[in-house]
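FAQ: What does the model actually see?

It sees only this:
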Amino acid sequence: MAESTPASPPPLLRIKDLSIEFRRRGGDPMQAVKGISLELNQGESLAIVGESGSGKSATALALARLLPEPPARISATQLSVSGHDVLSLNERELRKIRGKEIAYIFQEPSTSLNPVLTVRTQMAESLALHRPEVTNRDQEIIQWLYKVGIVEPEKRLKAYPHELSGGMQQRVMIAMALCCQPRLLIADEPTTALDVTIQKQIIDLLAELRTSLNMSLILITHNFGIIRDVADRVAVMFRGRIVETGPVEQILENPKHPYTQALLDCVPRMGSKLERLRAIDYDLIERTAPII
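And it is asked to produce this:
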């Protein structure tokens, strides 16, 4: 008798027909996201790429119902994280999955961190909420600060955010997100406010931690230049829709959709003889381009 093949585990994240609109006083609702569908497996990394206003961040925030409702209105045939039907959860249930099942890193650590609380206090609050079984919180915090590359982490426990560099603040944000051991980490433009050298360090750190912790990762970015070493798959968003998706190498080397091609043309390349980057003809793309 032939051995049966074990069933594959269900996707960690399932999105089907997700739409997001914002009500505007005295006007028609603005539709920010228009019926997108995605799946993400445990340990997999997805980059969602597009310009500002394409719907990337709204999509990411909707996964844990972090958009204020109203003015936002979220609808979907399915929106589940770790088997939880996100749209059916009440506020108390949502607080349990925020940080524990799904955690966020935002692009401005200086505004995400509380300026009047020390690193220790802020990380200890996260541990108390999501991992109350941890008895020696200082030791746990020091371990996570060390894992994200902070030198002499014991000395940083009593530091306030303004006493840290931008790169170190972002590392603290990563440690704060990871100390709760989430299954899915969403990094929303995590390198925008950092210089190029620190950007590379943060992206390499996310890629390393994702692998070592078998954690799923969604990287939200407008920059195709940073995704090759951190993403397994790419979804390209244009005006609220996913217009192309596929393995990262396929998208980078052989993009099919004209918007993806236009975005890649905007990435500066060493040795390029172009005097200026090509402009994107949005109206032409909107009229003629298929969704892939």
